Amino acid sequence: MTSTKPKAVVLLSGGLDSSTTLAVARHQGYELYALTFRYGQRHQIEIEAAARIAGHLQATRHKIVDVDLSTFGGSALTAPLEIPKDRDLQEMATHIPITYVPARNIIFLSLALAWAEVLGTSDIFLGVNVLDYSGYPDCRPEFINAFEQMANLGTKTGVEGHGLKIHTPLISLNKAQIIKLGLAMGVDFALTCTCYDPSTQGEACGKCDACLLRLKGFAEAGIKDPGKYQKL
User: Fold this and answer.
1) Please, is 71 exposed, middle or buried when counting C-beta atoms within 10 Å of its C-beta (0-12, 13-18, 19+)?
2) Model-level pTM?
3) What is the pLDDT of residues 166-175, one digit of tens each?
4) Is 98:134 a contact under the CB 8 Å cutoff?
């Protein structure tokens, strides 16, 4: 049977934010087409987490696409550089960290845009937010708005007047709010992976920026983090 639901491409990293975004798209009545990238990142655990979440939230299709950004390096996530640990929140907000992957969201959104055109949909969901994040320039609303304008100028879908839309439902939420929203929509956060530097068993380090922001969010939400952490 052919689904009558509108389709949406949802970028899914396997982390807390993207998993909640997938749940939001589902709640809004979209048929889910999850898109994950194997981009030369330092571990594959987040890709395994994305597959778990896609199944958990009943995505119609889950594509894992290879785009090897380690060819260029320039980030602690794609090159043998040290992951920052134990940084305070003020330090996170002051400088763009070495975990920033050059042009990552530009590349990912471009490929999501291509798949959306093939699927015949105008809707793309991305789990960026500007509160409780590590200072990445490609998470800001100015970037999202500019990319959306570009997409509508440079695609068949856009010039034919179908109005490509990049949905960022978490853009103005902090981590505690995102966690509460995800739980309300049935996300099992035990299935997710947020850590930049997990163990080979998938246990989070608890000290990188991503872990610290996640732990802060669960603490502020008054909820125990179901994720597994390394015993230090």
Assistant:
1) exposed
2) 0.95
3) 999 999 999 9
4) no
